[in-house]
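Recap from last week: sequence in, structure out.
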Amino acid sequence: MFQGPSSLNLDAKGRLSVPTRHRDALGTALTITKHPHGCLMVFPRPAWEEFRDRIASLPMGAQWWKRIFLGNAMDVEVDATGRVLIAPELREAAGLSKDVMLLGMGAYLELWDAATYKAKEAEEAQGDMPDVFRDFSF
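Predicted structure tokens:
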């Protein structure tokens, strides 16, 4: 299970240094794809395969969502120094600049442009809490 934030930087070539605390759980074979909220999803390959199979089995009415998730998925390898190259197409799609935020989301990680994440989190915090949390005890 991945959890917690990591403030990171992409290098000039678009490489991300995977935080040491996530390296063992991620392994060296990853899949990165778009998320409809404007970030990227980073999966260890086994978790990706489960997610991919669930998405692929959706009916034709979900074809555009299949395209978003499956059509944009890229398999990548973590190099010997713990870095992963984020493809230019995916960096552009998520608006990634130098400063990024990596968030643990359970079975996968989300990769956000740091400024975009900060703005979206602040905006969401100003709104009402979703109904699913109304009876949730903190």
